[in-house]
Write a structure and sequence with these properties.
It is a single chain. The chain has 17 helices and 13 strands. The protein folds into two domains: 2-61 and 102-240 and 417-433, Glycogen Phosphorylase B (Rossmann fold), CATH 3.40.50.2000; 252-414, Glycogen Phosphorylase B (Rossmann fold). Strand 2 (30-35), helix 2 and strand 3 form a beta-alpha-beta unit. The chain is of the alpha/beta class. Residues 284-429 form the Erythromycin biosynthesis protein CIII-like C-terminal domain. InterPro entries: EryCIII-like_C, EryCIII-like_N, Glycosyl_450act, Glycosyltransferase_28, UDP_glucos_trans.
Length: 435
C-alpha cells in the first residue's frame, strides 16, 4: 500500500515518524513524507522521500506571554495578547480536573488552539498542496502529526484511511471527549464547535463534510506507555517508542566510560526551532549542577553559551549529541519536558528532573513522570532557582526508588509491539477504513 506521512516543519516531530516510516518501507510499502520546506532536507537525510507543502514556519508565531487574570477566562477575545502569545496558565489543553472542564472553559481553550495554535500548521496553501499531491499519488493510508490537521483533510478528500501518530499525550482527544459531551447537553442552536467552524469549510472545498475523525483520526498510533496514557474512548494502536536522532557520528569521548556519574542537561530543539529561543534560564541550570560530584553533558549551542559568563569545570558543552547514544551512560537527565527527550529517557530507564517549559502537553508529561516515581519536576521554568534544581537532582541521583521506577517504565515500554510488529494491524485498519 501507499502511505503518506504528514508533519509540522520541525525536525523533532519528523523524528517521531521516521522509525514507523522505515518499518513500512522495509515491509514493502511505498512511503512519502510531506511537510513544510523547513525540514525537506532532514526528510531526505533520513532516507525517505520528501514532499514540500505550504510555507516555511514563522518561529515567532507562538511567543509566550504572562497569563491573563482569572476574571478574563471566559472572554474569548482576550485569550491572545497584542504580542500574539498564549496565556498558557489559563488556557491549558492538559487540564483534567472535572470542575475546571466547563463548557465555557473548554470552548475558550479549543477556540484559542484551533484559531492560533494549529491553524498556522495547516494554512490554506499547505492544505491545497497536500490535497493536490494526495489526489495525484493516491495514498491508501495517511499518518499525520496530531498538530497538523492538513493530513486529515487530505485523507478525507481522497478517501484514504488515516490515523494520528502521537508524539506525546493525547490531550486533544481527551479534551474533545469532554467537550463533545458538554455540547450534547446544550440546545442544538448553541452547539458551536471551533474545530468544525475551522475545518468544516476546508473540507467542503474538497466535497467532504466535517466529522470528528478530522480532529482525532480514524484511529491513533500511540507510543506512550499504557500506564501513563490518558483515558480516552478511542481506538489506539500501541507501539514501542524507538528513538531516532537523525544522521550523526558518535564523538570519541562518548565511546569511553564516564569517570563519574553522568548527567545529561538539555533544552531540546523544538523551542529553538519553533519558538525562537529557550524558556529556561541557562545560567541557573549550570549553577545548579556546578557543585555536584557529577559529569554533566549539556547540549548547548554557541548562542546559548553566550548567555553565561563561564562554563563550570564539570560541564562538557556540545551543540548536539544523540540522546539515544548518550542516555545509556547517564544516571539522570535534566530537561524541558520535550516529547522526544521524555520518551527517550523513559526508553532507557533514566530518572528525570523536568524543568517544565509551557507548551502543549509538557506540564502533563512532567506531572506523569513525577507521579510515576521516575523523576521530579518544576512546574514552570520561570520559577527555577539553582538551589531548588540542585536539591531535586541530588534526590534522583541518591534515592534508589527513582532509578527503580524509571527501570520499571523502561521494561513496560520494551514490552510494547515494535513499529514492524504493528504493520499487520495498520494493514487491516486501512482495509477497513479506506473508501
Amino acid at each position: 500500500m501507499r502511505v503518506l506521512f504528514s508533519t509540522i516543519g520541525a525536525t523533532t516531530h519528523l523524528h517521531h515518524q521516521v522509525p514507523l516510516a522505515w518499518a513500512l518501507r522495509a515491509a514493502g510499502h511505498e512511503v512519502c513524507v510531506a511537510s513544510q520546506p523547513d525540514i525537506a532536507d532532514d526528510i531526505v537525510r533520513s532516507g525517505l522521500t520528501a514532499v514540500r507543502v505550504g510555507e516555511a514556519l514563522d518561529p515567532g508565531q507562538w511567543d509566550d506571554v504572562a497569563p491573563l487574570p482569572e476574571e478574563e477566562v471566559s472572554a474569548e477575545g482576550n485569550i491572545w495578547t497584542a504580542q500574539g502569545g498564549i496565556a498558557w496558565d489559563l488556557f491549558d489543553l492538559c487540564e483534567l480536573r472535572p470542575e475546571k472542564l466547563t463548557y465555557d472553559y473548554m470552548h475558550c481553550v479549543l477556540t484559542a488552539w484551533a484559531t492560533h495554535g494549529f491553524r498556522p500548521n495547516s494554512s490554506p496553501r499547505t492544505v491545497d498542496d497536500l490535497v493536490r499531491f494526495a489526489r495525484q499519488w493516491r495514498p491508501d493510508l495517511v499518518i499525520w502529526d496530531p498538530t497538523t490537521f492538513a493530513g486529515a483533510v487530505a485523507a478525507m478528500a481522497t478517501g484514504a484511511a488515516h490515523a494520528r501518530l502521537m508524539f506525546g499525550f493525547d490531550v486533544i482527544g481527551r479534551m474533545r471527549q469532554s467537550y463533545r459531551a458538554a455540547l450534547r447537553e446544550r440546545p442544538p442552536e448553541h452547539r458551536e464547535d471551533p474545530f468544525e467552524e475551522w475545518l468544516g469549510p476546508l473540507l467542503e472545498r474538497y466535497g467532504c463534510a466535517f466529522a470528528e475523525e478530522a480532529v482525532v483520526g480514524q484511529w491513533t498510533i500511540d507510543p506512550v506507555p499504557a500506564s501513563l496514557r490518558l483515558d480516552v474512548d478511542h481506538v489506539y494502536v500501541p507501539m514501542r517508542y524507538v528513538p531516532y536522532n537523525g544522521h550523526v557520528t558518535l564523538p570519541a569521548w562518548l565511546r569511553a566510560p564516564a569517570r563519574r556519574r553522568r548527567v545529561c542537561l538539555t533544552l531540546g530543539r523544538s523551542f529553538r526551532e519553533l519558538l525562537g529561543g529557550d524558556r529556561a534560564p541557562i545560567a541557573e541550570l549550570l549553577d545548579a549542577v556546578s557543585t555536584l560530584d557529577v559529569e554533566v553533558v549539556a547540549t548547548l549551542n554557541a548562542d546559548q553559551l553566550a548567555q553565561v559568563p563561564r562554563l563550570p569545570e564539570n560541564v562538557r558543552a556540545v551543540d548536539f549529541v544523540p540522546l539515544d547514544a548518550l542516555l545509556p551512560s547517564c544516571s539522570a537527565i535534566v530537561h524541558h519536558s520535550g516529547s522526544g527527550t521524555t520518551q527517550t529517557a523513559l526508553a532507557h530507564g533514566v530518572p528525570q528532573v523536568v524543568v517544565t517549559a509551557p507548551m502543549l502537553d509538557n506540564l502533563l508529561k512532567a506531572q506523569r513522570v513525577t507521579e510515576s516515581g521516575a523523576g521530579l519536576h518544576i512546574r514552570d521554568a520561570r520559577e527555577l532557582t539553582a538551589d531548588g534544581l540542585r536539591d531535586m537532582l541530588a534526590r534522583v541521583l541518591e534515592e534508589p526508588s527513582f532509578a527503580a521506577r524509571a527501570d520499571a517504565l523502561r521494561r513496560e515500554m520494551a514490552g510494547a509491539p515494535t513499529p514492524r510488529e504493528i504493520i499487520p494491524a495498520l494493514e487491516r485498519l486501512t482495509e477497513a477504513h479506506r473508501r
